Amino acid sequence: MSTYENNAQKKARTHYFLTRILKLPIQFQGTIIDLETTGLNPETAEIISIGLLTGETLTILAITNHCTQALQEFHNAIATLLSSAPQPVYAYNASFEKAFLEKKIGLSLAIVDAQEPLRDLCKEARRQGHSIKWPRLSEVTGSRLNEYFGIRDEEILGNRIASLWKKFLRKKDQRLLEKIMYHNSMDVIRTLELLIWLSVYEQVGILPAQNIALRVFSAEDFESWYFHLVCEICQEEKSVKDLFSVRKLTNTSQNNESRSYYVCISCLGFN
Predict the structure, then answer these.
(1) 219: domain range?
(2) pLDDT tens column, 151-204
(3) Which among 165, 184, 213 is the end of a domain?
(4) In what order do the strands lie in the sheet with 258-264?
(5) Per residue in 75-99, pLDDT tens?
(6) What pTM was estimated for this model as a whole?
(7) How many separate domains does the chain show?
(8) What is the mean pLDDT of residues 122-134?
(9) Which of 213, 234, 257 is the last residue before a domain boundary?
């Protein structure tokens, strides 16, 4: 009888969550998290979904029921996900994630705020007399691929999350919840993009060092690094795609000297 009850409980729990796992062509050192909620106040709002990127895996976990048991199971699942999350942990406007995780999960997590360098830039601009607000994540990142090729992107705006969640609870249409999950995944990816550019700007001297955990190699160092990478691939019998993603960037200094930089979103144990 107990076996039947345990199986029934396990089956019921599968109806509380909807999970999506994406494999990205990167190896990220650390963790990126993003929460979607029913509001801004953790005292009254609830967590709807969490997006979490570790290594090459982007996981989106969303709740599908608002009953007390579902909330408890969902909170336990979030705690389990974050308990093994590699450090450092990043989030955009990290105070938001911290407040909800502390209130709802009872988890006090050290999170690096990816927005902080941008706030510093805003403060400097204001000191110089410019009127500028804290930027939304979508305002400082984002691919133009869909615009260039005319691809229809149906991502919703963040201010529609709460109303879409209420609509999902009424209609139980999974497609509505998947819209929230898609938005969640895009915010994680946009945070990754922002961290890449912050890392580049630090290395080329545009921004002061913030210890962003991404590696950038100058053109002079790239040949030596690539040699080690090839050795690693041969030893492990893995493809380049399994190990890294490299992006070449060019910075033009004030004296018009151009230098190329290669951003590697893997670490491979190199210091």
Answers:
(1) 214-271
(2) 777 778 888 999 999 999 999 999 999 999 999 999 999 999 998 888 877 766
(3) 213
(4) 215-218, 258-264, 246-252
(5) 999 999 999 899 999 999 999 999 9
(6) 0.72
(7) 2
(8) 84
(9) 213
